[in-house]
Amino acid sequence: MRKVLSVACLGAMATFVVGVAYANEELIKMSQNPKDWVQPAGDYANTRYSKLNQINASNVGKLQVAWTFSTGVLRGHEGGPLIIGNMMYVHTPFPNKVYALDLSQENKIVWKYEPKQDPNVIPVMCCDTVNRGVAYGDGKIFLHQADTTLVALDAKTGQVAWSVKNGDPGKGATGTSSPLVVKDKVLIGISGGEFGVQCHVTAYDLKSGKQVWRAYSEGPDDQLLVDPVKTTELGKPIGKDSSIKTWQGDQWKIGGGCTWGWLSYDPGLNLVYYGSGNPSTWNPKQRPGDNKWSMTIFARNPDDGMAKWVYQMTPHDEWDYDGVNEMILTDQPFNGQPRKLLTHFDRNGLAYTMDRESGELLVAEKYDPKVNWTTGVDMNKSSPTYGRPKVVDQYSTEKGGEDKNTKGICPAALGTKDQQPAAYSPDTQLFYVPTNHVCMDYEPFKVSYTAGQPYVGATLSMYPPQGESHMGNFIAWDNKGKIVWSNKEQFSVWSGALATAGGVVFYGTLEGFLKAVDAKTGKELYKFKTPSGIIGNVTTYEQGGKQYVAVLSGVGGWAGIGLAAGLTDPTAGLGAVGGYAALSNYTALGGTLTVFALPQ
């Protein structure tokens, strides 16, 4: 039954429908108000687009810092704040503090949540102690802590409504991702692929925190939540035991396939979309087979978790090309016909356009011309290898074998894009993609599994492509598979993008610059150096009739792990420390929210 709840502190959105069965209706309605930013990606479709246009291409060059807020935490600050009416909710990396700020009272701290977590979780966090943000629904703020506790906080008071443990840090499972609220459930993934965790997405009841369903990335059909006949890949039934047939023995039990990226949702189709990560271990010789369903796009019914379709992008991964990046949902014409599309910029360097209803593969093209491990995807529907990438033997770590250093592989393990989310503008019908322009040497070695210990089995080094010095590009991409424009950056662009109706696209750099560029041409219109490197996602909101742009700075993440964790061995941080050694010449640690506005 619907009921109306008045929540004074939620300002402009003070009265709305909150019956838990209608939580997504509430969020859809709230996300249509461009003054707020009520979901981690702005909306269910993960477009990271705002209809606000007070700040536009003609005046963005006049932006000034309006206010700042120190989080009191070092290490990498990924994600971004939520803005709901007068309230802003800011999160931090470990120890995962959450601040509630009243924007109408000079950003007064209304409440602060600071969990007490065992610091032993820090060493089992693969690539810095990051957290990608909180979610909102049913009057609660949802946080996935590093120790895998999913906690529901009262949005008005910060009091814990319920909490539940989503995994076992003692076996290497950790929490870094942002939840997604759908209907009467909150969905969350898990990290731990570098520790041999059998990974999953889990749905919890919004009111009580009770587990409703859990879908694993690999294992028997009943654990996968698949139907051998009804669940399809590229239009064909996946068949019985589709996963365990592609693993040796019981290796699927420590198979990885983690789900620490972004989730999106189509209310019309009632499907949730997300990707799974690398199979464990990084040594491909130790896990023969396609290792399904790691490296896979899943389309699931959020009511019961059943998968409608799947698509494995990188079978038998040999390079750690996790498939967890966001799925952006758009309704666009394709070959002259209106289509419900899903666009995914994968770590493997290929951008995929799919029909999100059927799972049909429409486009698979390189979005960095230096990608060399594959010549492309077999797009011949009558071919026995349809939908599979064609691997170049020279860059196959499987062909090279254990203790052989395969050199010059592009992209590096952190991919042409990692978790840093792209944005889409319906005005230009372009995608704006922060990318890594990085290659690697990769040497697999034999490793044994011990619960709670690293299960990697490879040594890496990273560097720019041969003959080049820049390690990042910020690009505009169209859904037919073309780069429209590309801006070089000295380091990887590890910040999430924001597109706006003002014809401006924002992103941050690892040195700490917030940049604004023209959405049509890529021309740089504004930049400002924040206190630390930016790996956070840019957001925008309106308060008191004024548009603001906000971004977390605080260098870290995989690219900045050397600075964040004080590492100096070039091969540490899974190869990132050496690749990004020069970053320390440009920025230092520090967690700060910087908010920009036009002058009065």
Could you characterize what this model shows?
InterPro entries: PQQ_b-propeller_rpt, PQQ_MeOH/EtOH_DH, PQQ_rpt_dom, Quinoprotein_ADH-like_sf, Quinoprotein_DH_CS. Residues 1-23 form the signal peptide. This is Methanol dehydrogenase. The chain has 600 residues and is mainly beta. It has a single domain, classed as Quinoprotein alcohol dehydrogenase-like superfamily (Methanol Dehydrogenase, Chain A, 8 Propeller), CATH 2.140.10. It is built from five helices and 44 strands. It has a six-stranded mixed sheet with strand order 19-18-23-22-21-20, with no helix packed on it. Strands 3-37-38-39-40 form a five-stranded mixed sheet, with no helix packed on it.
Features:
globular; 600 residues; single chain; 4% helix; 5 helices; Methanol Dehydrogenase, Chain A; 36% strand; 6-stranded mixed β-sheet; mainly beta; 5-stranded mixed β-sheet; disordered N terminus
Compact description:
Helix content is 4%, strand content 36%. With 600 residues, it is mainly beta. Residues 1-21 have low confidence and may be disordered.
